[in-house]
Amino acid sequence: MNNELSNYITFSEDVEHALLNAIPVVALESTIISHGMSYPKNLETAKKVEGIVRANGAVPATIAIIKGKLKIGLDHSELELLAKEGQKVHKTSRRDIPYVVSSMKTGATTVAATMFISSLAGIKVFATGGIGGVHRGASQTFDISADLQELGKTNVAVICAGIKSILDIGLTLEYLETYGVPVLGNNVEQLPAFYSRESDFKVNFKMNNEKEIADFLKVKWDLGLKGGVVIGNPVPAEFSYDKSQIDAVINDAIKEMNEKEIVGKESTPFLLKRISELTKGKSLDSNIELVLNNARVASLIAVELSRL
């Protein structure tokens, strides 16, 4: 890392040690802590996710901006700060990074920002809940997540429970295809849809295990094919919603969001919260379990990739 970058980035001791000694590392985003759920559930979940990464042979690197510093690996007090401050923390995508850093603010990183910061440190594997994408009605609003362009240019694999089902999954897949982003299925042919194991779409390539996924990643980047990879990992069956049931709930939440004229970066937090309310908290349980499952699979992929 050059001297200019080192002025802006700090590492936790365990992440720095892991990177210096070729120990597998898994990046984790922080908006799921600040904007994804309320305190103390968010803090409990963040700790569980980090624990699962460690239990499966990798080092967790939760990423955020803390008082103007890009922080790779957070200590307990920093996790607690994000959890307690919640939506008061600046929701930070790639566009927002210079502002949050130059003004010495604290920011929670989205998928796009986490990918970018991960790539600065050479971290290749990132676990999250679901990726952003093309919003429903984007032909009028042009509301398209920055996650997609980041996937088109940043060499980080994103393990997720598919594209968030509040979005237009079909158009999101078309966008990813245009930018040459492969969509893999972890032992599934059908693309998972966040709360549901089912969708109306297939992945590009089914991979049978984490070793096959790691082989794919190595070949892609060895060949100089820049950009990320989406790895669809379905929510555990016992926490999966029936597709038609959750679709009806999502449609009701989107209708309410439109009536309230909520747009842009506030739309996803509103929808996730409203869906949780409409399902009496059961969707939040699914959300937590799919994140934990993604962290487990990401750790196994990171371990396999470190062996290549």
The main pleated sheet reads as:
11 strands, mixed
Q: At CATH's second level, what is the architecture?
A: 3-Layer(aba) Sandwich
CATH class, please?
A: Alpha Beta
Strand portion: 5-15%
* Helix-strand string: HEHEHHEEHEHEHEHHEHEEHEHHH
Unreliable sequence segments:
none
The percent range for helix content is: 40-55%
In the CATH hierarchy, what is the superfamily? Indigoidine synthase domain
Radius of gyration: 18 Å
Shape verdict: globular
N-to-C CA distance: 23 Å
Domains counted in the coordinates: how many? 1
Judged by helices, strands and strand pairing, the structural class is alpha/beta
If you consult CATH, what is the topology? Indigoidine synthase fold
How many DSSP H or I helices? 14
Roughly what is the average pLDDT, rounded to an integer? 94
> How many distinct beta strands?
11
Describe this structure in words.
This protein is α/β, with parallel strands linked by helices. The protein has one domain (3-306): 3-Layer(aba) Sandwich (Indigoidine synthase fold), CATH 3.40.1790. It has helices at residues 3-6, 13-20, 31-34, 41-55, 76-85, 97-102, 111-121, 138-141, 146-153, 169-178, 210-222, 243-259, 267-278, 282-306, and strands spanning 9-11, 25-28, 59-66, 69-72, 90-92, 107-109, 125-127, 157-160, 183-186, 205-207, 229-232. Strands 1, 2, 3, 4, 5, 6, 7, 8, 9, 10 and 11 form an 11-stranded mixed beta sheet that branches. Strand 5 (90-92), helix 6 and strand 6 (107-109) form a beta-alpha-beta unit. Helix 4 (41-55) packs antiparallel against helix 5, helix 7 (111-121) packs parallel to helix 9 and helix 11 (210-222) crosses helix 14. The longest helix is centred in the C-terminal third of the chain and has 25 residues, at 282-306.
